[in-house]
């Protein structure tokens, strides 16, 4: 009788151990990090081939922005091997981007691109002077980017300040005043067309983008020639701070 109790006791202990082992395996399977879509798709952009056309370049930007908007970004390789590779092979960006200095507008992030993918020039109000045009020329002529994107954004402080200065009749003085002076013709144009209130700000932002494109084309023989040769396309774009989406202006 005593032997039967001992046997039942041993069997009970073994059963408890078996249950614990099985439960542990189940928990381990549940807590093991699943392979994410990011991990599966990451090599797609990290190993992108040479981009030869403006259409291909724009498509990469459109797809990258969509990933950013949906929170499915892929391009976050900041490893030492990535940096070393860029030093050895040099930079080969597929797009030159002129945009505003606003701290909320970061092209690499909002287009989900990595180190070495985009050549960027930033100025308040995305306006240009000779040194900025020179930087643009370096991107399109020496780095051979097939696309130049001039991108403004919603709620632009430089445009807002210009609108307020125009409506109040304030003088635009000093270095900051020089920025407003560059934007003023765009504000005057949309104001003359009857825009007011929020529409005045929004339309002035769009008009400023178009005006900057026209100025670059007029003042850069390099850009003009590349466009005429079909080697470069200039695109206007507007980044919306609230949604994260980039609107392409035709």
UniProtKB/TrEMBL annotation:
InterPro entries: Carbonic_anhydrase (IPR001765), Carbonic_anhydrase_CS (IPR015892), Carbonic_anhydrase_sf (IPR036874). It is an enzyme of class 4 (lyase). GO terms for molecular function: carbonate dehydratase activity; zinc ion binding. Its EC number is 4.2.1.1. SUPFAM superfamilies: beta-carbonic anhydrase, cab. GO terms for biological process: carbon utilization. Gene3D superfamilies: Carbonic anhydrase. Belongs to the beta-class carbonic anhydrase family. This is carbonic anhydrase.
